[in-house]
Amino acid sequence: MSHPLPADDESLLDVLRDALGEARAVPAALVRAGQQLYAVRDLDLELARLAHDSTLGHRAHLRAEEVEGATIRDVTFESSSLVISLQVLPNGAQGQVINVANGRPPDGRPGGPGTVQIRPADGEPVTATIGEHGWFAFDTVPRGRVQLLCRTAGGVNALTAAITI
Amino acid sequence: MRNDPMVIVLVHRAAAGDEPAWHALVERYAPLVWSVCRRHGLSGSDADDAGQNVWLALLKQLPALRDPAALPGWLATTARHECLRVLNQSRRREGREVPVDSAELAAPTEVDELVLLHERNAAVRVALAELSPACRQLLELLAHDPPLSYRAIAERLGVPVGGLGPRRARCLEKLRRSPRLAALIEDDADRSSGRQA
Questions:
Q1: Between chains, do B26 and A35 touch, taking CB under 8 Å as contact?
Q2: How far apart are CA A141 and CA B103, in angstroms?
Q3: Is the Cβ pair A31, B125 closer than 8 Å?
């Protein structure tokens, strides 16, 4: 069983209007996020949601793209094993990765060593090393819509939700 | 549209490493995923969260997808579960004890209905995209939201108003005859003659 097509032209045009309208209503970010996953399909990924963004008030209710960045911006992502905090500075960025697989902060362990990438929607990713204590730093940060990809020596690969820097 | 050959081809190609095929799959099904999210009251970063997880689940599922024709139903069910997960997560963060009960959300039958509607709409979009540029342009203007007057459409196309009626009929007929829509029409014929699959 499926939705039949109407026989008369006027109703068929209504179907067409509906079909085109529903495609237009989809946020572009939802489509892009899905399409970009393909580049990292070979990793055993876990996804990290946006848990806090200082430019969005206490809770991340809003879409990050809609808000201009502050001078120093604090962003936190959470996946099932990692909490990734990122501070976007006027020049560069820094942050820390905490492994919370066996306990929530302050009980979590440093998430390092490993690497963290900032992956722009278009262009080359930049990579930094996660130190033993979980800290990382970037001298330069790609602008625009980015995702972070954390890969720890413990074997966790976490891809964050996209934010706009 | 349980047997849309296009979806089967896209799934096999995407599983075999063809990135454009994956992009096309995401584009085709994003309206379905989005409307399940909306149906559950999700938007902003909550919808991003649910959506990302649906796409990741699909990506992991691709090689094992034995019946690609069942994909829309699978996606809608997965989207529904992800929306429930996100809603429960945000209730826990807000310190609310009561987990979201699946009964208070979109019923599975409602989701089935969404799947059928979206498959029809996806097939219509593909059929439209495959028409001649002239027909596509005319039908897009005729389906404009809000509707445009015939005069406005004729002006945009640079053709006399009097010619629009016959052209409209011709282009809609071509749309109806698109192989992309054949399954819809056959299903309908089956139903009206009492031979339900």
A1: yes
A2: 45
A3: no
What does the alpha-carbon distance between residue B175 and residue B137 come to, in Å, rounded to a whole number? Answer: 13
Reported ipTM: 0.85
A interface residues, B as partner, C-beta within 8 Å: 1-5, 9, 12-13, 15-23, 25-27, 29-31, 33-35, 37-38, 41, 45, 47, 49-50, 60-64, 161-162
Q: Please indicate, yes or no, if residue A21 is contained in any of the structural domains.
A: no
Of A5-9, A67-71, B4-8, B52-56, which has the strongest mean pLDDT? B52-56
Q: Among A2, A13, A37, select the one facing B56 at the smallest CB separation.
A: A37
What is the per-residue pLDDT for A24?
Answer: 93
Q: Is the dihedral of CA B95, B99, B103, B107 positive or negative?
A: positive
Rg of chain B's alpha carbons, rounded to an integer?
20
pLDDT score, position A66 = 42
Predicted local confidence at residue A154, as pLDDT: 87
CATH code reported for the domain at B5-129: 1.10.1740.10
- List the beta bridge partners of residue A114: A130, A152
The answer to whether residue A22 sits within a structural domain is no
At B181, the amino acid letter reads L
Question: What is the model's pLDDT at position B1?
Answer: 45
For residue A8, tell me if it sits in a domain. Answer: no
For A92-105, what is each residue's pLDDT tens digit? Answer: 999 999 988 766 55
What local confidence, expressed as pLDDT, does residue B196 receive?
A: 41
- The structure tokens listed for A30 are 């939802």
Number of independent structural domains in chain A:
1
pTM: 0.81
- Chosen from A10, A26, A76 to mutate, greatest number of chain B CBs within 10 A: A26
- State percent of chain B over pLDDT 90: 53
Domain housing A153: 29-164
Residue A149 lies in a domain: yes
